[in-house]
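Researcher: Let's do a round of design. I'm pasting the structure tokens now; please hold your answer until I've finished.
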């Protein structure tokens, strides 16, 4: 079966080599270098806000069955083996995960570019410097409007100012 998009637009996609080449069976793992999918990982359900739109039903408490540090490193090893170029730490609030910096640095060292989606309330100058020093390639901070609108939507007074 051939992709309709491929037929109409004649574009190459990361999975094409796995689908359409005779040598696909020889490819041990993953996609071509830098061509794999971006992986969004909800690394924790824990969150310090109470956003109206949250699909995680998160709260500021520890949840059971989240990956341990060692399990998370094994997950990152698998992503690196698959040649995933980017891992987006999401959540919940990923900065509430005690091993976030260790895992982001581990991903960087494994050749998987760590990126971060955060509500921004925990980013101080020191945290920002540490994020930069580790090599986090992108930080997205969620805002839903100006102060009053954002705080109402996020369910916590002062969330806008902290972000």
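Researcher: That's everything. Go ahead.
Model: Designed sequence:
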């Amino acid at each position: 079966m051939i992709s309709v998009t491929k037929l109409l637009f004649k574009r190459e996609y990361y999975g094409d080599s796995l689908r359409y080449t005779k040598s696909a069976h020889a490819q041990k793992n993953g996609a071509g270098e830098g061509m794999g999918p971006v992986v969004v990982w909800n690394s924790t359900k824990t969150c310090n806000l109470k956003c109206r739109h949250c699909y995680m039903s998160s709260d500021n408490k520890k949840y059971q069955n989240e990956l341990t540090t060692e399990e998370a490193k094994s997950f990152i090893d698998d992503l690196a083996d698959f040649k995933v170029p980017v891992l987006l730490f999401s959540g919940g609030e990923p900065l509430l995960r005690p091993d976030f910096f260790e895992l982001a640095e581990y991903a960087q060292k494994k050749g998987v570019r760590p990126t971060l989606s955060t509500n921004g309330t925990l980013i101080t100058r020191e945290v920002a410097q540490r994020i930069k020093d580790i090599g986090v390639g992108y930080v997205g901070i969620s805002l839903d409007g100006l102060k009053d609108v954002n705080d109402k939507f996020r369910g916590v007074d002062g969330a806008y100012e902290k972000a």
